[in-house]
Design brief:
single chain; 245 residues; 7-stranded mixed sheet; 12 strands; 28% helix; globular; binds biotin
Length: 245
């Protein structure tokens, strides 16, 4: 189904919202924007970027692929956590699906990922990239057991425009929350919305090694504490978190 850009523009008059039928990555396109709040949305990405150098599967016409130019309010990881909360809120509003959040950037339906957040910091700006699996009915073999879409979860198609409208509103509200109440408000919200912040048995992959332990809360900057099985307590600054097998 064609993307009805005018419907989105009508809800955000005055905001620069660019549509590209196809691009390599909206992260690169957004780097050329100058006005904070400007948005690039694409119908497909040929080189979609994920976190930790991974690729983001970007099937034509099926997902929402969007990057937003922001003045960095708050730094990563708080900004990443805020964007994940915004994506989950938008998905709940547009598709009626309740999501879990996995530190720092995964939005999950059950144990499968339906959306991801990528933040790239520049000199004076941050680019917030958000990808949502909306109407995919299947995924490539390498991510088939890890990914899901709103369509797979609900059994019906969803409007990418409606989701983008909800997403832009939710991003604005969460950034305002950081501005008005500070990062602590986002950390509290994330901790209460995520099953991965405290008490969950996880494996963390970092620096080519895997460490197993129990998630033990967020530090004041939004990094994740891990109570390791060897008894030590480690602050996870980066890396991938997954359920312990
Ligand atoms: C992740 O979960 O690893 C982050 C995924 C981020 C994907 C989005 S899609 C829109 C934007 N453009 C990209 O190339 N990546 C982000």
């Amino acid at each position: 189904m064609a993307f009805d850009l005018e419907r989105v523009r009508a809800r955000y008059p005055g905001r620069e919202i660019l549509w590209l039928a196809s691009t390599d990555s909206t992260m690169r396109d957004a780097a050329r924007l100058t006005r904070p709040g400007s948005v690039v949305v694409a119908g497909e990405q040929t080189a979609g970027q994920g976190r930790l150098g991974r690729r983001w599967h970007s099937e034509p016409g099926a997902g929402l692929y969007v990057s937003i130019l922001l003045r960095p309010r708050g730094v990563t990881p708080t900004l990443t956590l805020a964007l994940g909360l915004a994506a989950a809120e938008a998905i709940a509003a547009a598709a009626g699906v309740a999501c879990d959040l996995r530190w720092p950037n995964d939005v999950l339906i059950g144990e499968r990922k339906c959306a991801g957040v990528l933040v790239q910091l520049g000199d004076a700006a941050a680019i917030a990239g958000i990808g949502v699996n909306v109407n995919q009915v299947a995924f490539p073999a390498d991510i088939a057991t890890l990914a899901t879409s709103l369509r797979i979860a609900t059994g019906c198609e969803h409007s990418r425009e409606e989701l983008l409208i909800e997403l832009l509103g939710a991003v604005d509200r969460h950034l305002e929350l950081i501005e008005c109440r500070g990062p602590g408000a986002i950390l509290d919200l994330f901790a209460s919305s995520s099953s991965y912040v405290r008490g969950r048995r996880v494996t963390v992959d970092m620096d080519g090694k895997s460490v197993r332990g129990t998630a033990d809360g967020l530090d004041p900057s939004g990094f994740l504490w891990l109570r390791c099985d060897d008894g030590s307590r480690r602050l996870i600054l980066s890396g991938g978190v997954r359920p312990a097998m």
